[in-house]
Amino acid sequence: MNKQIPKGLVFSTEDPVRRKRAIILSVILVIVQISLIWPVYPLFASPTPLIFGFPLSVVWVIAMLLTGAISVFIFFLKDKDPEC
Asked: Which residues, at least 6 apart from 36, have a Cβ–Cβ distance to it below 8 Å?
């Protein structure tokens, strides 16, 4: 019962390459989330210009959604656990 409780950001691996990838993914996802709220989103919240018939605000949300999804997919492809 004398287990040390880790402090800070904890990852499930000791491998430095996997840890680095997880940190990079975390940073990308935080940037995507910040770009969808104030102070970044109001820069793109206008109804004009239209891009493929959609307002810029909708295109911005779709672009950030795709950025996050592609980032997680790339992380999934590159992160191979040798124990599995």
From this structure: 61, 64
Q: Which of 4, 32, 12 is nearest to 79 (CA)?
A: 12
65-78: average pLDDT: 93
Q: Stretch 52-58: mean pLDDT, rounded?
A: 87
pTM of the model: 0.73
In total, the chain counts a number of residues equal to 84
Q: Please state, in angstroms and rounded to a whole number, the distance separating the CA atoms of residues 84 and 72.
A: 19
Please name the amino acid found at residue 14.
E
Domain boundaries along the sequence of the chain = 21-78
